[in-house]
Amino acid sequence: MLQKKRMTKIKAWIAAARLRTLPLSVSGIIVGASAGIFEKNNHLQAQLDLEYGGIVCLAGRNILESPIFWLAILVTIGFQVLSNFANDYGDGVRGTDAKRQGEKRMVASGIISPKQMKIGMIITGVLTFFLATFLIFIAFGNENFIISFIFFNLTIISIIAAVKYTVGKKAYGYSGLGDVFVFLFFGLLSVLGSYYLFTHKLYLELLLPAIAIGCFSTAVLNLNNMRDIESDTAAGKNTLVVKLGILKAKKYHAFLLLFGMGCAIMYTIINYHEPLQFLFLIAFIPFLLNIKTVFKNKSPMLLDGELKKVALSTFLFAILFSIFI
After folding, report:
1. Residue 108 CA to chain centroid, in angstroms?
2. 110 Cβ contact list (under 8 Å, min separation 6)
């Protein structure tokens, strides 16, 4: 009996971590890191060409061989799980999840107590902080104190932002600012930050794939909020969808996906010229089908299945982008 209770508790914590959100959260890291390694390999090859007259060919380092890449992945997963725990806790104690549809929430259902979830948040936050500190040290060492200090503070800000999404009296998820958080942290910061970890520099064009990932990630949140519009309205959770209304939210959703796709295509046209480097366009087919489904939808609760499609399509885009550049 005791073993059965433990298994139920483990399953509850896994459910609270919402594993299906993790592929989307690491998509920006994959895009930024792959662009960073591509740039780093090109720079090293240029140095060899200059020194040896082009007779030495660099094999190039693979993204999967980089400890910086894997640490960045672990840190991002930490942020996502912390955000999911905080969301479960915040919505649970406020009563927002009492009548929600879709996935069961652990605090609202009483499987995990608010106190236990708080402890889970603290443990996840501390582990993520130490992993991020180690990542910063590996990437910059002792020589770049100012840059290390900036990344260290970004880590603290990210942890606070993950928690404050639905926790506290001024939780920004309840005032329609969740979209801004997702766009900035899982789009711009994720792509630009991971690229900088490898190259120690940035360039303006990289904003295009960063905006693309930001738009796709925000579209997933928008789908989530469209699905929950009725329960959120009843609970006083003023998401952007609640403020806009369902019709404008659908138009906003289409804009996010179309603009994101346009940014990704523009970046590739500017930087790459091989036909294979455009194979990521395959990942955009589900986006177009999703837009059609969203505009036809008359029951927001039925949009739950679309979240996984858009999230996994974003992950597929990141993988194809990484492979073919």
Report:
1. 25
2. none
**What is the reported pTM?**
0.88
Distance between CA 186 and CA 189 in Å, rounded? 6
Contact 16, 120 (CB under 8 A): yes
Joined together, the tokens standing for residue 256 give 């996010």
Q: What is the pLDDT of residues 136-153, one digit of tens each?
A: 999 998 778 889 999 999
CA–CA dist 191, 186 (Å, integer): 8
Going by the DSSP 8-state scheme, the letter that residue 298 receives in this structure is S
| CA distances for 4 relative to 7, 13, 16, 66, angstroms | 5, 14, 18, 40
Domain ranges of the chain: 7-324
Angle, CA of 294, 268 and 282, to the nearest 5°: 40
User: What is the rounded average pLDDT of the residues 65-82?
Assistant: 93
Give whole-number Cα distances, 297 to 14, 165, 303, in Å: 31, 28, 8
Q: CB under 8 Å to 27, separation ≥6 — which residues?
A: 186, 190, 213, 216, 217, 314, 315, 317, 318
Is the sign of the CA dihedral 172, 173, 174, 179 positive or negative?
A: positive
